Amino acid sequence: MIEIKRVSREFKEKKHTIQAVKEVTCTIPKGEIVGLLGENGAGKTTLLRMMSTVLEPSSGEIFINGVNIHKEPMKVKQTIGVLFGGETGLYDRLTARENLEYFAAFYGMSKHETKVRIEELAKRFGMRDFLDRRVGGFSKGMRQKVAIARTILHNPDVIFFDEPTTGLDITAANMFRELVRQLKKEGKTIVFSSHIMEEVEQLCQSIIMIHKGQMIYQGSNEQLYREEESRDLNYIFMSRIVRGESA
């Protein structure tokens, strides 16, 4: 379970203070898939970075499975997986396999466990043909596959994806969506941002909408459809943004 309690984040820019996230409070139950929606600059990535221990809140607290993530970040990092947009976090001079072995060692995985897991993920993501090639020469889609494999390599309980299908072709994107469905069956908690409304509709049980750093909706898809008397998520999203409603 993820608990976010009155979390805000400010950034200093020259003489100005930018309020990227404002007083967000919500709870995400264990095993739920949540879509994080908001226009560019709304605060989605900042919120995800705080949840994943990359950024500290200016105020407020975040707990993952009861652990305060900024008081015990290393304990939390062992249980979460993170992928941010175009930031694959891969080393160009290493092969895909060597990259995955490096991160497996960071997570304390045994050599046998690492070998088995890499083979499993290489088969699942169709990476066998380039598993032993240096990442520096990879296409964007190939890099994204390896990055997704790195994210779930250590079998984390909680997973954060920021625009996870960016750069993937249709086949790879569909493969990712099937992976999310499988992770749900395994009881994983997943929060991901996406601009693809069909993706959110297909995969998510609930939605968090953010507008100008503030949460304007949190709840189930069905509750949102009932409130808006529509099942057109793109229309609902644009309508809520225009109205700027409070959660």
From TrEMBL:
Q: Which GO terms describe its molecular function?
A: ATP binding
Domain of life of the native organism = Bacteria
Tell me if Zinc is a UniProt keyword of this record.
Answer: no
Residue span(s) of domain ABC transporter: 2-237
Q: What is this protein called?
A: Sodium transport system ATP-binding protein
Q: Which family does it belong to?
A: Belongs to the ABC transporter superfamily.
Taxonomy of the source species: Bacteria, Bacillati, Bacillota, Bacilli, Bacillales
Which SUPFAM superfamilies does UniProt cross-reference here? P-loop containing nucleoside triphosphate hydrolases
Keyword set, alphabetical order:
ATP-binding, Nucleotide-binding, Transport
